[in-house]
Amino acid sequence: MNLPAATPKPTTLLQLSDSHLSEDPQAEYRGQPADANLASLREAIKQLAPDAIVLSGDISEDASTASYWRMGGFVRDLAPKIAWIPGNHDEREVMAGVFDELGFDAGPIVGIGGWQLVLLDSAWSNRPEGELDEDRLAPVDRMDAERPALVFVHHQPLPVGSSWIDKYPLVEPDRLWERLAGKPLQAVAFGHVHQVFESERDGVACLSAPSTAANGLREAPKFTPGEQGPSARCFRLWPDGRWQSGILDATGCQAASAGQ
Ligand SMILES: [Fe+2]
Ligand SMILES: [Fe+2]
């Protein structure tokens, strides 16, 4: 993207997802060392120097207090602001017990760099699928009409073309899309799918964050380890609503998509 010299400095945001840490730091997730894979991103995150980090769910595999403390300890010095939503493997009350103590932000609307991050909790029904009822959609109605927005939700709000994870989507996604119509929305960012996915619906970018632990092949009938290693999604957000996004791995952040 070519930007004029007078362009204000963008805000840098990192989305970490699906770390699947367990109570035992040596535990594996899908054959991968979850803690070590997360730690392999540390230097690249320090280089990125994000202004904020959003943890977009499945932070823990077993919803253990110890796993949330380890994630908290990992991210607390990597950005001045940390926000979070749960995934289907998490327990919101247990997370809040740790993350509230660390001063992390559960929103549901977080302001940063002229943008609003809207944090929607789709993981609450003790099922692998996600769901947004009226209460969980309510933050959408509180969005500022004047500010560009990113929505974060754990479950994919559209099929990603992977049968092994499209079995467990956000159910009734049109409830979300209808609610978002007319909002100053640039992108919906999600986790849960354990792969890089980029598409759009209704002119809104739909972007997944890959897992920091284990990622799978898109076109496989069941989870099959893919070539995508531990990784995350990064964003640069300009106050006038322009944005870039890319994928961060241990070598740094490569820009991929951009929008107006
Ligand atoms: Fe996950
Ligand atoms: Fe998930």
Could you describe the 3D structure shown?
With 260 residues, this protein is of the alpha/beta class. It contains 7 helices and 14 strands. The protein has helices at 34-39, 42-48, 65-75, 92-99, 134-141, 163-166, 173-180; strands at residues 11-16, 28-29, 32-33, 52-55, 81-84, 109-112, 115-120, 149-153, 185-190, 198-201, 204-208, 232-237, 243-249, 252-259. The strands form 3 sheets. A 6-stranded mixed sheet has the order 5-4-1-12-13-14. A 6-stranded mixed sheet has the order 6-7-8-9-11-10, covered by helices on one side. The protein has a two-stranded antiparallel ribbon with strand order 2-3. Helix 5 links the parallel strand 7 (115-120) and strand 8 (149-153). One fe (ii) ion binds at residues 18, 20, 58, 87, 192, 194. One fe (ii) ion is lined by residues 58, 87-88, 154, 192.
